Amino acid sequence: MMHTYLKWAAAATGVLLPGLGVAQSSTPPADTTKTKRLGSVEVRGSLTPTSKTALSGEATASPASVTLVGRDYVAKQAVTSYGDLLRPLAGLNVTNYQLGGVGYGIQLRGYVGTEHARDIAFSIDGVPQNQGSDIQTNGYTDLNPLIPETIRRIEVVRGPNSPFYGDHALGGSIRFDTEDRLASSVTFSAGTYGTIRGVAIAGFGSRDFRKAGGYVALEENYSDAYRDNNRYQRLNGLAKYAFPLLAGTASVRAQVFSNAFGSANYLNRAAVDAGLLSRRAALDPTDGGNTNQQNLVFNYRGSNDAAYWQATAYVQHHDFVRIRVNQPAMFGAPNGPQRREEGDRTWAGFDLRRTVQSTLFGLPAEYAGGLYFRGDNINTTRFVTVARQEISQVQGRRIHTYTPAAYAQLQFKLTEQLKLTAGARYDLLFYNINSLALDTDYPNKNIQVHPAAFSPKVGLAYAVARGVGLFANYAQGFKGPSGYEEVIDNPGLGVSKLTSYEAGITVDDATGRAHVLASVYRSTQTGEVQNDPVSGALINYGRTLRQGVEVEARYRFGDDPGSLAIFGNYTHVLAELRNGDAQPMYVTTVPRDLATLGFDYTFGAANQAANQVTLSLYDQLIGRKYLVSDGSQQSPTFQRLSAKAIYIRPAWPNFRFFAESTIYPDGSHGLDEMSFVSGGLLLTAPQAKATFTAGVKIPF
């Protein structure tokens, strides 16, 4: 099946490349001040990629593989969770653990899929979301508080090239930005497995971006879910206020989020395949938990592109309770009692940056330099429980981390066609770790360490022809050790360093109808720490190597934004352990191939019909992954199909009716999205074979 699908992707690329027009310049600069209407969706700012030879702070101008999408993209996705926003994008694989409100697995550039997106640096409005030294995993990320209707754009930078991101930016970085203003509306939807969701948005103040205004968004989401004991309920409130300040624009955002969930947990795959265990079964009917989060965020950016300040300041609190039984024994029954994990974390910090366009040796140049600080106060406890009743406390740790950093980036143009970029980042990581007397693993430990990381970045971009460019970069990144389970055991561990090489090509025409981005990369990491798939113990695997290729392409057949557009992407990655073993050894749970092919089209858009329907559909194949490091056990390729239809009536601005569905059409029916080996057993988290949701959005 994969071979056939790759031939489809190759054919699609063959359609795209001949259709590219000749642009009047390499690529028009992104317009970040105007509002453009795409179909029925209002988008602030063009999302045409900025030329890589332009002097710009936009991520797409960097000499790296970058994908940028906006509200039109978000509106067209079949979204049942935040993971659906990322699944269609090149190089990204998202896994649903069926653990209720626990953060998903998100993979990029060959990093493991079982560790809650720990190896990608995530941010929302510039606020870092990775939770280092977490009791669940080092870099745990929970994006459940995202409200898709409020997202303005999503920026994906692959690899460690950006100096604006530090810890956890191994596979890359993903940034979500929310809108400053939204029109008032109410959205209601219902779907399979008892899913009900409502979102109310109340806009206030001026819609003129030169004046003050904002909105309040309230969300409630409830689902019985496909699996037993996987009930989920979420309450979410967000308020944002934007206003002119000091020759620029500032905003203040406040959010309160709460969820409660059951957890179906993982099942023994052999028991499911043999019919001894229902694929909808839950491992323990009392597993589950809850999460609460609050945040307050300030953002500012000057309006003069030639010289401006940029600032983010924030405080965020996150507490959770997770109760889970030990992994299943041979025939699917729980193995031993539950454990109750509690984490309470507050992190606060700022990022202050100055950007100036000037000259260097008489050549056009842009300099950006900044200071970063983040401080975390972390309290973790673990209990032994049975049916949620506490038997004993076995862990108690208090961790304080502080990370000051400085970074800089210089871009300068040797010629109109050639731009060089050089940057660097220096991070200091301070750990203060205290374990309590009752901690059965490390009683009465007090540790203070402060490793550091210097991360240089260099790259170049060259415009071969109008609309066609080449880029290459060399970059280093790092991952700090976990204070919860690594530094406490080995205070001298230090940071794990990543060294990456990348080269690629971009093709964009002036009308925005055609886009191609392709890159190849090779990266090595020192001291990579993972859980052993057989014993479950934390192991330092030493040196690892990842190399791969990524391609994304899109072509729209008409000038109207609603014209038929086809898109596709393909990723191949090989992730190996490189410690002198005689036989190849592999990083586990990494799909070797990802392929996506889809289209979107608005019926009636060309002739401005009174009634219009937008149909978006994409088919994705997720390739085989090694389940044990010697390669002797692999999971099969599986398929996921997603579609969404949106009805609009231009005479009723912002009104829409929509229906969306996701199915697993192959023989596994979602058994292979989340599969891994633990304790010598193959475990799975079965997905629903098909889901369906329909809803309506009504402006007021």
Characterise this structure.
The protein starts with a helix and ends with a strand. It contains 3 helices and 41 strands. Strand 16 (288-302) and strand 17 (307-325) form a beta hairpin. The chain is mainly beta and 700 residues long. The strands form 7 sheets. The chain has a 22-stranded antiparallel barrel. The protein has a 5-stranded mixed sheet with strand order 3-8-9-6-7.
Summarize the structure.
With 700 residues, the chain is mainly beta. The protein has three helices and 41 strands. The strands form seven sheets. It has a 22-stranded antiparallel beta barrel. A five-stranded mixed β-sheet has the order 3-8-9-6-7. A three-stranded antiparallel β-sheet has the order 15-40-39.
How are the SSEs placed, and which strands pair?
Elements: H1 2-16, E1 35-38, E2 41-44, E3 66-70, H2 71-76, E4 93-95, E5 105-107, E6 120-124, E7 127-128, E8 151-158, E9 172-178, E10 185-191, E11 195-205, E12 213-223, E13 232-244, E14 248-262, E15 267-268, H3 269-273, E16 288-302, E17 307-325, E18 338-360, E19 363-386, E20 389-413, E21 418-428, E22 430-435, E23 446-449, E24 452-465, E25 468-479, E26 496-508, E27 514-525, E28 529-531, E29 538-540, E30 544-556, E31 565-577, E32 585-586, E33 593-603, E34 612-622, E35 625-626, E36 634-635, E37 638-648, E38 656-663, E39 675-678, E40 681-684, E41 690-699
Parallel strand pairs: 6-9
Antiparallel strand pairs: 1-2, 3-8, 4-5, 6-7, 8-9, 10-11, 10-41, 11-12, 12-13, 13-14, 14-16, 15-40, 16-17, 17-18, 18-19, 19-20, 20-21, 20-22, 21-24, 22-23, 24-25, 25-26, 26-27, 27-30, 28-29, 30-31, 31-32, 31-33, 33-34, 34-37, 35-36, 37-38, 38-41, 39-40
